[in-house]
Amino acid sequence: MISVIEGQAHILAQVVRPVPAESVPVAHALGRVLARDLAAPFDVPPADNSAVDGYAVRAADLVPGGLARLRVVSDLPAGSIYGGTLGPGEALRIMTGAPMPAGADTVVPQELAEREEGTVRLEAVDAGSNVRARGEDVRADAVVLASGAVLRPQELGLLASLGLHEVWVHGRPRVALLSTGDEVVEPGLPRKPGQIYDANRFALHGLVEAAGATPVDFGIVPDVREVLRTRLLEAAESAHVVLTSGGVSVGVYDLVKQVLAEIGGIDFWQVAMQPGRPLAVGTIGESHFFGLPGNPVASMLCFLLFVRPALWKLAGRRRLEPPRFTAVAAEPMRKKAGRREFKRGVLTFTERGWEVATTGPQGSGILSSMVVANCLIVLEESRGDVKPGEAVLVEPL
Ligand code: AMP
Ligand code: MG
User: Which of 4, 10, 178, 271 is deepest in the core (most CB within 10 A)?
Assistant: First the structure.
């Protein structure tokens, strides 16, 4: 028996090389992982500019507590620059974002201005008001995004503000998905008595995509040794990671175990956790292999705990831990010491803060518990039964 944390560390130690980098358009880079440090080629904003529509002036010309009457030298539209230097007694009509003219240090908003023919009367503002300084957002040559950063919408905007339209990111890991079991049928086809529809391949497909990787569908494989062997070898040829579900427990038909012992270097783990004890982990050729349990909740959970961090590392991410925080248990929870238990939970924000209750029955085949849940409740190994009011760890789903 190994612990969850030992298992995770062992898996991450096996992932040594991320998927090679490729250049993609910034517009298509959402969720991708930056492959190189990125330094700003110039200051952003590139020049001191006005933060409001108004009048650029020399602060010394304003009259504290009164009105200053200044001569308007020009009306500057957005995108233009004023070639001259603003002299004493002069004001320049300026738009938001337009570069400050030489000589000016302050902008008076138009709400504080009364325009007349050729002149303007301005209320006083503090010296330097309403001016955005060159480089106040980003300094030239500063590393603005580090390799390993996940590109969110704001990162895409920043890249674009630096004039970039292509960016080097890690390739998406390709993940082959196979379901095993003679009882498992493809949704959309007729189901005979004794058969069940394949839930795992579809849940795993979604989890793979949500983790930023690309699923490759290898369908359902019957519990027939030669077929399984051939399909696993094919899958390993075409993907960075091969994922199966089912067939890793001790049933007579649990062939994944036997076939893998022949074709790859695979360990069979009993992980001290609930749900999801049996897990097969290793390599087939150049590919990483994970044999997940057949029960739907267990296979999803094992994916989140063991496969997702590996996919994130393959994709070049730096941060491999999901966000976690504590909430107050709203009900008693049964817990066996010595293993890590994961309950499906419903997290609510109340006037007392975050509270969490379980979704009800926690069997590892009860997929609807995952549907009702908005978090996992993580109960550590050392812990026994939980009393209402105790703090527990939660991981949003
Ligand atoms: P196994 O580990 O193959 O014995 O499977 C454990 C349990 O999970 C059995 O009840 C299987 O019928 C069920 N199961 C296996 N594969 C799937 C699947 N792809 N979708 C839904 N349930 C499955
Ligand atoms: Mg099976």
Answer: 178
Q: Model pTM?
A: 0.88
Q: Ligand 2 centre from 246 Cα, in Å?
A: 5
Q: Does residue 199's CB lie within 6 angstroms of at least one atom of ligand 1?
A: yes
| Contact between residue 174 and residue 208 where contact means Cβ atoms under 8 Å apart | no
d(CA 281, ligand 2 centre) in Å: 17
Residue whose C-alpha is closest to residue 293's, from 274, 265, 316: 274
CA distance 344 to 341: 10
State which ligand 1 atom lies nearest to the alpha carbon of 245: 16
Q: What is the pLDDT of residues 19-66, one digit of tens each?
A: 999 999 999 999 999 999 999 999 999 999 999 999 999 999 999 999
Beta strands 278-284 and 287-292: pairing type?
A: antiparallel
Closest residue by Cα to residue 184 from 297, 303, 295, 307 = 295
Compute the chain's Rg from CA coordinates: 31
The torsion region of residue 221 among left (phi > 0), alpha (psi -120 to 50) and beta comes to beta
The atom number, within ligand 1, closest to the CA of 278 reads 2
